[in-house]
Design brief:
The complex is a heterodimer of chains A (346) and B (281).
Chain A (H helix, E strand, L loop, with lengths): L1 H12 L3 H20 L10 H22 L8 H9 L1 H16 L1 H5 L7 H45 L4 H30 L6 E17 L2 E11 L7 E5 L2 H4 L11 E7 L7 E7 L1 H11 L4 H13 L3 H14 L4 H9 L7
Antiparallel strand pairs in A: 1-2, 1-4, 2-3, 4-5
Helix pairs in contact in A: 1-2, 2-3, 2-8, 3-7, 5-7, 10-11, 11-12, 12-13
Chain B lengths: L1 H26 L10 H11 L3 H11 L13 H18 L3 H13 L8 H15 L8 H11 L6 H15 L3 H14 L3 H14 L4 H13 L3 H14 L4 H14 L2 H20 L1
The chains are: A alpha+beta (346), B mainly alpha (281).
Chain lengths: 346, 281
């Protein structure tokens, strides 16, 4: 048992393949924690949020490095050297072939009519091979780009630490400490939220707006939407959380300044309140709508139904009366509402 | 030796990144730009090097019908786009740039999925190319911003140019409220909602009764399901556009959705009065 533990610790200290896979796994887990147990932040996103993308990239590169330097590939070393020597030529040839397939129908126009077989093949080239080669080339180039980037970075690190093994060891320790501190914060946040048994408290609030933070590197993009709303704890202040559409029930582009929200909050095991959900306060929204557009029957009827469901009998009665005054023909609806109310409240 | 090999790797990496970037750019372009024939490739070549006048003409020669002469077999909304584009081009060629910009706003205010025919797209490409041949100081920047905003729907690479022309038009004082609307449309397309709202607010701050700004503000409010704002802007636009039928239809749709039969009755009375006035004239 102790031998296993010792080996695990050694693997961690040396940043072995297992340790790197664990880091990637934990990075994915931190994303889940961040989305599920949202702790409101100030106007600028927290350091933890800012660190997410660079650490994710670093963890991915660490795994790629381990994968590339595995012993099973040692047999392929001569081939890798050969490929490296002619790398630009290989890339150029692949790119030109892919483009050439796309240009097949154009080339076909210059083939004499007697060679109809060749002409036909050239014309159908993009249909038969276009999609396949295009996808293969893109996948191949993306993989090769990641591998080459990693090789170049590894060589750069080797060059910097050449003759200084201590520097390499320190770099590994620093990487471990950065990831360790990052994961420790998320373990605390997960503990704060996952084991929290405190009751959910609903607070009335209003949206102040949404902001998008995006990062685009070539064709790879990453975006996160933040919603800001009036604070329930500090009047006049704003709270900011990441939008979670399936949980909150709205898309970021549906948020506007003044949108009434119900913010459901839990106290947190460590006393760090976290937001369970921020759904649209439909009743408040309908009340506003009916106040501004009194002749709008559909929202008023929905509002009455909501009042009845919430046992707000007097409000339901008041609106039912007003509806009847505006739309006397809609007696059936009002009678249905009255039937669903207790006799004393009518 | 090692250093030279690193250079080779670096070169290969650059080639691959360049290929992927170019592939991404081409993949995001509309299929209509890729006509697999020598003429199509020639047109694509002109288009990719930025010679839009030549590209538009080369493409138009390959597309049989013209939007102005024979409308395409398309749905009602696509037909509306066709008519509006034809009107915008006609107004621009007649020198009524302000009106052309406002007509383009109506096209841009429609759902981006509703697109005109290939013929009208290539006419816009040709028109844009011709407009670019004027000296920079004499270019209709506000109109170019809207043309590029339309082309952006088919090729995302035009977004930056459209934004540049919009900013230039504002700096020059060329149809400023209209250009703020264009800017708002462009920001909304890029998902920059706060910037988009700020731009339309600036247009309305300059002219609270600006028809294009009111219509676009109503479209935006409708997209974010802010019914009250949508109703308010549509009502204001109905008056500001002197009872534009398109705005009337949008208002009717909203009032029907709200079950506001009294509001609908009032709207119908206003529309009947308009029709009676037209017949009398």
């Amino acid at each position: 048992m102790t031998e296993i533990v010792r080996r695990v610790i050694a693997n961690l200290r040396e940043l072995g393949f297992g340790a790197r896979l664990l880091i990637v796994f934990l990075m994915v887990w931190t994303t889940v924690v961040m989305d599920d147990y949202r702790i409101p932040s100030g106007p600028t996103p927290s350091v933890l949020t800012e660190l997410r993308v660079p650490l994710m990239v670093l963890s991915f590169l660490l795994v790629v490095h381990s994968f590339q330097t595995m012993r099973i590939w040692s047999g392929l070393l001569p081939l890798a050297r050969l490929l490296e020597r002619f790398a630009p030529v290989v890339v150029l040839a692949v790119a030109l072939t892919s483009t050439g397939i796309f240009m097949g129908p154009v080339l076909a126009q210059f083939v004499p009519g007697a060679w109809s077989g060749l002409r036909g093949r050239l014309e159908t080239l993009p249909m038969v091979w276009g999609a396949v080669t295009s996808t293969l080339v893109v996948v191949g180039f993306v993989s090769a780009s990641v591998m080459i980037t990693e090789v170049l970075l590894a060589r750069l690190v080797d060059r910097i630490t050449l003759g200084r093994p201590e520097a390499m060891r320190r770099a590994k320790m620093l990487t471990l400490w950065v990831f360790g501190a990052y994961f420790a914060c998320y373990v605390a946040l997960a503990y704060n939220g996952m084991l929290d048994t405190s009751p959910v408290t609903a607070h009335q609030s209003e949206a102040l707006g949404v902001t998008r933070r995006s990062l685009q590197v070539g064709f790879v993009s990453h975006e996160v939407w933040w919603v800001s709303f009036r604070s329930w704890r500090d009047p006049g202040q704003a709270e900011h959380i990441v939008v979670h559409p399936p949980r909150d029930g709205y898309w970021p582009w549906e948020v506007w300044e003044g949108l009434p929200l119900v913010v459901e909050v839990r106290a947190g095991m460590l006393g760090l309140p976290w937001v369970v959900s921020t759904h649209i306060d439909r009743t408040a929204l309908l009340e506003r709508l009916v106040k501004q557009l009194p002749t709008a029957a559909t929202p008023r009827k929905e509002l009455i139904t909501r009042y009845v469901a919430g046992a707000r009998w007097s409000d339901a009665m008041r609106h039912a009366r007003e509806h009847l005054v505006l739309y006397p023909a809609d007696r059936d609806f009002v009678e249905t509402v009255l039937r669903s109310m207790p006799a004393q409240s009518q | 030796m090692k250093a030279r090999w690193n250079v080779r790797l670096l070169l290969a990496l650059l080639l691959m990144v360049g290929y992927l970037w170019e592939h991404h750019q081409l993949a995001s372009m509309d299929e209509r730009f890729f006509i697999r024939s020598p003429g199509g490739m020639r047109a694509l070549g002109f288009y990719l090097v930025g010679d839009y006048a030549a590209a538009g003409r080369a493409y138009s020669a390959l597309v049989p019908s013209s939007a102005l002469t024979s409308p395409p077999r398309s749905t009602g909304d696509a037909l509306v786009v066709e008519r509006l584009l034809a009107a915008a081009l006609r107004e621009a060629r007649a020198g009524d740039i302000g009106r052309s910009v406002r007509t383009m706003h109506r096209v841009l205010g429609l759902d981006a999925k509703i697109r005109g025919s290939s013929a009208s797209l290539f006419e816009i490409v040709t028109f844009t190319g011709d407009a670019l041949q004027a000296p920079p100081a004499r270019r209709p920047t506000a109109l170019l911003a809207t043309m590029y905003a339309y082309l952006r729907r088919f090729d995302i690479a035009h977004e930056v140019t459209a934004l540049d022309y919009a900013r230039e038009a504002i700096a020059r004082g060329d149809l400023v409220p209209e250009t703020y609307v264009t800017l708002s449309i462009l920001h909304a397309g890029a998902g920059e909602l706060a910037e988009s709202r700020a731009a339309v607010d600036r247009a309305l701050a300059m002219d609270a009764q600006h028809p294009s700004a009111l219509v676009w503000a109503a479209v935006q409010a409708g997209r974010r399901r802010d019914i009250l704002a949508e109703h308010r802007f549509l009502r204001a636009a109905w008056t500001a556009t002197s009872h534009d039928p398109g705005v009337g239809e949008a208002l009717e749709r909203l009032l029907t959705e709200l079950g506001d039969t009294r509001g609908l009755d009032a709207l119908t009375r206003e529309r009947l009065a308009d029709r009676a006035g037209t017949i009398r004239d």
